[in-house]
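Render ATP/GTP-binding protein in 3D.
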Amino acid sequence: MATTKRNQIILPASRGAAGTTVLDRAFARVKGGKIFAKPKRTGSTSVTAASARRPGPRGHKGRGLGEAQLLHPIREMRGTNYQVCGLYPFPMGGGSPLEGVPLGRNLLSGEPVCCDPISWFQKLRVIANPSAFIMANPGLGKSSLLRRMAIGLAAFGVWPMVLGDIKGEHVAMIEALGGAVLPLGRGVGHINPLDDAGAVAAAKLLSAAKAEELLADLHTRRFDLIRSLISILRKKPLDEREDQILDRCLTVLEARHAESGTVPVMADLRQVLKDRPQEVREVALDRGNDARYDEITEPLESSLNSLCGSGAFGQMFARPSTNKIDASRPMVFDLSRISQSESDLRAATLLACWSIGTGTVRTSNMLADDGVIARQRFLLILDELWNTLAAGPGIVDQVNALTRLNREMGVGQIMASHTPSDLMAVRGEEDRAKAKGIMDRCGIKILGGLAKSEMPLLTESVPLSMREQEQLAAWQDPPAWNRRGDEAMEYTNDDVFASTDELTVNDVELRAWLEDPENREWYFDDRTTSPPPGQGKFFIKVGARAGIPFSMEFTPTERRSQVHDTEKKWHEAKFRAAQERGER
């Protein structure tokens, strides 16, 4: 039987007929009510004129007609409206937003990738809170990526605040930004738990209502911090009556120092307890008996003695703060001098740093609310989160509260850790649940190389496709056995970081800088020419969206400043080894 299609009559090939066109039908013959095409001697696979005029998306279909079986992908490029205005209307938009700190290039398209929690929250509105969590195995650039965001945001006017640098990795960055480095440790610096963080002086500049609110917040902050410090000493919380006694002692102490405007120290708080004021006796329930009062307050007085220089914490909290936080520039609390074995002292110092740091932010915000000063944005950095959370009780609650209040406080937040298992290593089931929620609430998750065994726990917080999981696992592999690898590989990012005349590093300056053996060894580090496959490579994940893979690369200015060099103690040993191999 014949088959009809678009004004054509095709006879079966077994009858030797070919396709007929409109012109052929004029010569068609009717035989027995059927239309037959005029036979042609072209075989059974003739091509009509219509099909020859209109090739398909792959060309003319048919044997020997040039159909393309494989279509090569077109290289994607990005340009400004001024550069590519003649291509309008554009066929498609870019793959990643160009808003935020430049981080590197997209591994798929080569386009620039920009990201930071404040820009994506405030301008793009693609995340619910201004926070980011960076996770990758050691040595893959996790802390360097964190510093890149901090440096970029500092250029945007957002001051980074590192409220507890346990390893001292961010000191060089803060110094390069002109910030304040506040060292703390045994015999190096002091931090006063009763420090007002500038609240008392700021209250005099505020309206009556705002001043009362600020001083009430100061009282609460002092009470929470001292109660937490005592809990670390005792390994258990205060009871109900001790909470009330401590609160009344602080109230009496603040009243005594209100007129003079001075900042009390822990010895002043202990003296209030010894003086037996009536306000304290009312909550102590001593029934007017001095002996009973002394018996009730003896445990609390003993704990205050430890904070006044006679206990395990030494002089750390016994004196006025060595340095004050200046809210007008970046800052870091350098805690690298506190030994890892002194977990209680490290936990207590971290709590004090977080309390005073957040108090400074609140004071600055209230002054801005009343129009006294211009609004200042802050970026709170918490690197090596696993070490911080394991420092002791109370730390998890502090970080957990911050992740819930960063929008209210008007601050951005970046945290970093190695693996999801680190968050589960804290003490207590309740703290483990809180630690897991810290990562869940972060608006941006940036993932680097991770072991395959971490994927089940990671996917509970971050939706990942199988392809993304395989890529993360591949990025954690070590480098090739050969030391040098591909000498032709270059790690530059000139298109993203356009250098100005003032910042341009010419060859003469670079050679002069490389005259220093330490600088030369760092600059020509083995990983510069043969890095691990996952070094500097990350996925940006927001919700269930597909991840944005990118590669972060250091600029010449970053290399010269050495802000990302965290292996200075190894330079001498590596230089000697290179000399022995005849490479230096």
